[in-house]
Amino acid sequence: MSQAAKQSSAAELRQVIEEMPASQIREVANNAIGLEGMIPLWFGEPDVSTPEFICNAAAEAMRSGRTFYTPNRGIPELRDAIAAYTESLYGIAMTMDRVTVMASGMSGIMVSHQLLVEPATNVVCPVPLWPNVRGTVDILGGEFRPVPLRLVDQSWQLDLDRLFDAVDHRTRVIFVNSPGNPTGWMMWSDQQREVLEFCRARGLWLVADEVYARIVYGMKHAPSFLEHADTEDRLIVINSFSKPWAMTGWRLGWLITPDRFGKTLEMMNEFNFAGAATFTQIAGITALQEGEEFIAAQIARYERARDLVYERLSKNPRIQIGWPEGAFYAFFSVEGMTNGLAFCKQLVRDARVGLVPGTTFGAPEEGWLRLCFANQLETLNTAIDRLEACLPS
Ligand SMILES: Cc1ncc(COP(=O)(O)O)c(C=O)c1O
Description:
This protein is an alpha/beta fold and about 400 residues long. The protein is about 40% helix and about 15% strand.
């Protein structure tokens, strides 16, 4: 592009958009997707496609003419099914008035922040964290305030004093993603209660990203803020069909909010995506009502994968790794690695293994990598063999 064209295009878009960094996940993956012999462990998704009984429900809905616009908050049958699922999972009362269907967990994050974040406000958030959360705050002109988790004896920990100290009079939201991407850190109930109490006392919003609520080991679900909150608390819980039911490509999620925001969310959805796709919503009902066996089988696989990856990586004296309580990622640092992005690109080139550099998640220093272990044991073993052969000397 010529200098003149550059200057005129620089003025075309909002500065914050011009300055948004490109996704490093995409940067590593873009030129490598489909390369022969590639083991792609970069994206956060199951290695299996959506189970047939869910696909059949969508196909049947399409064939029977369920192809029209839906209400902006989602079809009532799905909202009702989400309320029933939430009630039975957590043993709490839930009504569909509090449920809004979203066109993905991602749109749930964006719409939540559109409601709350504006210039001169900030969002306080434990990191490392999936970068898209920060992206929404940046786009809306807010300030993202990261509070680093600490790795103590191979366990990720959040110091609540540090979290609360990061809050000031401009803070509007505390955002908690638990189980967390990329670390697998989980906020347990006692900390959840404290954070909720703090938000109540300070009039803050708590936005809880619980899209990995079912990707947990040795328990049916991760602790949820819903288990402690009152119906009127300033709490938004974001959830998604993507991970538990292997539906990442379907783009379907939901929010649980106080019911007084129903009308507002109806309007927000109108201007964002005007309702999720009809037949995916119908398939979502089937996923919720008939998907438990599938989830249990997936979790059993991921658990074996987690144990294998953790055991192998933690044995390597040059690798430091935290124990993933939930989600399906290993997040680890390699001694002597000075540029994670360059290493990931080299790993693709020389070893055909796809990982993601930790800096993209706000890791405080270089040398961290994320590996998605939702994969076959044999594939993971091969990937780790190749990784270890490539580690910087
Ligand atoms: C922490 C977290 N939140 C939300 C999402 C969004 O998921 P989706 O948009 O597929 O529902 C992801 C996806 O990777 C995630 O890791």
